[in-house]
Amino acid sequence: MSNEEIEFIGKQVKDMYGTFIGKVVGTITDIDGSVQTVGVDCGSEGLRQIPFEQLVVQGAFVIFIPRWRLEAQRLLREKGLTLRRIRALIDIVSENDDMKEDAELIHEKYKMKLITLEETEKQIKERLDHRLAELDSQLKSIRMLVFDAKLQHKSNEITDAKYESVKTQTVEIVEHIEHEKAEIVNIQHRITDLSVENLERTENPKEQLHSAAVSYLGNVEKPPITEPIKTAAPIPSPAITNPTPPTQSPKPVAIGADGAEDSQDSDWLSRMSSQKPKE
């Protein structure tokens, strides 16, 4: 066990938004000495075993990273990289047709990766929606509590100081909840942007993303251009008119995978280092 891992023991645990969770009382290690889970005393909720990867030491506190955040960041990172590689693969083939056989050797790998990521994306979206519903329910409970405190204050059941204390503490809780909701919505938008970006690059929007993305690696047959049929128009008068030159139909163009590339956030650990939870 490293010194960093030992530092967990005895520290207070807060989530990313400043809410107190509990205190670290110990760890469970694997046979090689690596930490698997960290035991956190959560008061009336008892001892909670939290995976080691979801905790980061930051000063005097241990910061808890929600599972949904880790999974969403991993999805954005992997899907963004997969799409960039697919676009690079398409560019290589378009620049050098001789490389097509080499490209076909690895395009199947990215096809299967996108299939896996699509299923993962569906599961993460469901978790994010569920978490938003939980946060909305908490906000509703807080509003009811504040309103009841106001009612007690108006009926002279509690003092002004007590009423102000209720408002102050609930405002802090609301700030934590709103912060988490804003981050979830932001991640939902980023996931949607990645999906929309792919659909815009497909030749047929009804096709699945993975099959459409790799379809450009195959042969693209261009239909022959047919000249418009010239028909002789009757001459109403002996006046000589200039014939209109025939107009050729535009050549078909295969839709490519070009486009502006979305920037990716750095790893979540680097983002966590810049966040200071409220004590």
Blueprint of the fold:
Layout: H1 3-6, E1 12-15, E2 20-29, E3 35-41, E4 47-51, E5 55-58, E6 61-64, H2 67-95, H3 100-154, H4 160-199, H5 209-214, H6 268-273
Parallel strand pairs: 1-6
Antiparallel strand pairs: 1-2, 2-3, 3-4, 5-6
Helix pairs in contact: 2-3, 2-4, 3-4
- Radius of gyration (CA) equals 30 Å
The major sheet is characterized as: 6 strands, mixed
Oligomeric state of the chains present here: single chain
Helix content: 40-55%
**Numbering strands along the chain, what is their spatial order in the largest sheet?**
4-3-2-1-6-5
Q: How many alpha or pi helices? A: 6
Q: Give, in order, the helices and strands.
A: HEEEEEEHHHHH
Number of strands: 6
Portion of residues in beta strands equals 5-15%
Using the alpha-carbon principal axes, give the shape: elongated
In the predicted model, the low-confidence regions spanning at least 5 consecutive residues are: 202-226, 237-274
Mean pLDDT: 75
Task: Report the end-to-end length measured between terminal Cα atoms.
Answer: 28 Å
Report the structural category: alpha+beta
Q: Structurally, how many domains make up the residues? A: 2
Description:
With 279 residues, the protein is an alpha+beta fold. The protein folds into 2 domains: 6-65, PRC-barrel domain (SH3 type barrels, Roll); 68-208, no CATH class. The chain has 6 helices and 6 strands, in the order αββββββααααα. Strand 5 and strand 6 (61-64) form a beta hairpin. Helix 2 (67-95) runs antiparallel to helix 3, helix 2 packs parallel to helix 4 and helix 3 packs antiparallel against helix 4 (160-199). The longest helix is centred in the middle third of the chain and has 55 residues, at 100-154. 16% of the residues are buried. Residues 202-226 and 237-274 have low confidence and may be disordered.
